[in-house]
Amino acid sequence: MTDPDTGPDAGSVGVVTEGRMDGHERRDPGGTVAALRDAGDVRTPVPSAGPAPVPREAVEQPRPAVGARLADLDEHTLVVRAQEGDVRAFEALARRHQTALYRLAVRVLGNRSDAEDALQDSLLDAWRRIGSFRGDASFSTWTYRIVANRCTGMLRRTRPPVPVADPGAAGGDDAAGLVGRSRPRSPERQAELDAGMAALGDALAALPHDQRVCFVLRELEGLGYTEIAQITGTGEATVRGRIHRARKTLAEVMRPWR
Predict the structure, then answer these.
(1) PANTHER family, from UniProt (predicted)?
(2) What is the pLDDT at residue 205?
């Protein structure tokens, strides 16, 4: 079973290990390369609205040596290479961000299996659309938005998920505030906290989708209002309103556990 804070292991979802693309690459754990090949997109991630403009500094700066390790390249260089059709450059980008993206999917969907599917589909979608990325926001913000939209769409099509046991593992202070501040734990206290966290998971799953996404991004992922607005495609005032309503609802539901 995967952990929502460490992300899926190498055999779960998402990206491939580095290897040659001549038919002798190493094992493709998540099937991403195979899926890209099936989609016919490995060499040509064509944007819908024409190629993204290349910033002047990208033209003027010397290009890293062909043999440079992808893991050592800066994000901008990897994005440019991915937009030129370099699938391994995109895989390097995905490796850098997949833990946070998976954690977001788990917390929004409340189900690790669905989260893995959402991450896989989102990475494929991001690869197909990489040519449309213009750098108006950071690459991480852009991919967050793809994952958030994918998760929201899944929630609208399915029944409410079974929530994960610990929705606040990486946002401990905020989650602890809803179920009581941490203190030395007796077995009885630990059982009480476990029950409180389960109740919090249920309450979080019951929030409207838009409130849940904003709450997770703010309180559990620690993102700022501006970035959340970019991810959700709304204004900051809307984001603040959604988070306020989510906090109010959760605080009321969790009152017995305070």
Answers:
(1) RNA POLYMERASE ECF-TYPE SIGMA FACTO, RNA POLYMERASE SIGMA FACTOR HI_1459-RELATED
(2) 87
What's the confidence (pLDDT) of residue 101?
96
Do 135 and 177 belong together in one domain? no
Max mean pLDDT among 109-113, 196-200, 245-249 falls in 245-249
Q: What is the pLDDT of residue 4?
A: 56
Q: Model confidence over 172-210: pLDDT tens digits?
A: 445 445 544 445 567 777 777 778 778 888 888 899 999
Identify whether 211 is part of a domain: yes
Contacts of 189 (CB under 8 A, 6+ apart): 183
End-of-domain residue from the set 157, 191, 220: 157
| Residues 239, 147 share a domain | no
- CATH number for the domain that contains residue 208: 1.10.10.10
Query: pLDDT grade, residue 157 (50/70/90)?
Result: confident
Per residue, the 3-state secondary structure of the chain, as one string, reads: CCECCCECCCCCCCCCCCCCCCCCCCCCCCCHHHHHHHHCCCCCCCCCCCCCCCCHHHHHCCCCCCCCCHHHCCHHHHHHHHHCCCHHHHHHHHHHHHHHHHHHHHHHHCCHHHHHHHHHHHHHHHHHHHHHCCCCCCHHHHHHHHHHHHHHHHHHHCCCCCCCCCCCCCCHHHHHHHHCCCCCCCHHHHHHHHHHHHHHHHHHHHCCHHHHHHHHHHHHCCCCHHHHHHHHCCCHHHHHHHHHHHHHHHHHHCHHHC
